Every structure is written in structure tokens, then in C-alpha cells.
Known about the structure:
Blueprint: H1 8-11, H2 14-27, H3 32-43, H4 48-60, E1 72-74, E2 78-80, H5 82-106, H6 110-126, H7 142-157, H8 163-169
Antiparallel strand pairs: 1-2
Helix pairs in contact: 4-5, 4-6, 5-6, 5-7, 6-7
Amino acid sequence: MSRRPRSALEALSAAEKANVLDELLAARPELREPVERYAAAHLSSEDRGAVAADVQDALLSLDIEELNGRAGPQPGRGYVHPVEAADEILDEALQPFLDDLARRAALGMSSAATELAVGILAGLYACRDGARETVLQESPDYPAERAAEVLHQCHKLGVDLPDAELLDLIPEWDTLRR
């Protein structure tokens, strides 16, 4: 039984693929325009349901044990309250989504930015009741507090949110949207 040889491209890490793309575009500048179109198409669409699931997974997968090294007496910081440590850990997990939101808004991809923002808010809403044995247990107000910050960030970035849909997606947080 013969095995199909593995593709070198498939074996590359994400960073190595990025380097290969950079080198290819440097060697073949005529490819830049079609690659730009592919990149724009990729960035201009987003699935709010997938984003919500990813946000929820990122926040609920943080085990309570992660607080052990971050809460309590910390060299150079003094005492760090468990809620403060939990917020920091949760912020680290949420930050890539917020960075992506800002990036898409800066690129003028308003539809994708809107879908991403709605997905982030829906993911936070899904975490509003926390979960036992997760970092969210230590910071039960985190989802609502960060949702308010996401709404503020959307306003600053010029990302229009669909109010009627948000009312359906995050009904208990209606007051945050005002």
C-alpha cells in the first residue's frame, strides 16, 4: 500500500506560510492584485454565529486553576485580587476578537465589522451566567461589563449595530445599548 507524499505546503506552520506568501509576492509582483482581492474577500465576511461560539469557547475554557499564578501576592505588583486577575485573564482571551473588530473597521469593512461585533456580543451574552470551575466564576460581571465596552468601541469605530437584532440576541442587556 503506497502512501501519498505529504505536501510541503500543508506541512508549513502559519508563520512559514506567511513568509512563503511574502516571498512569492516579492518574486511575482503580478500576483499582488489577485492576492489582494482574495485577502479583501476573506476579511470582508464574517459569521456572527461562529464568532459567538469562538468567544464563548475562549472564555469558558479558562480553567479556574489559571488564577493560581495570577491572584494573591505578586512580585512587583503587590496583592492582586482574584477578580482583578480573572478580568486580566479573560481580557487576554477576548482581546484577539477586539483587535480583529478594530482592524476590520479600520479597513472600511463595515459589514464584516458589524457581524464580528454582533458575534462578540452574542458570545459574551452566552457567558453571562458563567460556569463553575472556570475563570468566569470569579468575575460574574465580566460579560456585561465587556459588552458595554464593546458597544462603546463600536460607537468610536463607527460600526453600526442592528438594534432590533441585538434586542433578540441579548435581551437581558437592553439597558447596555442606550
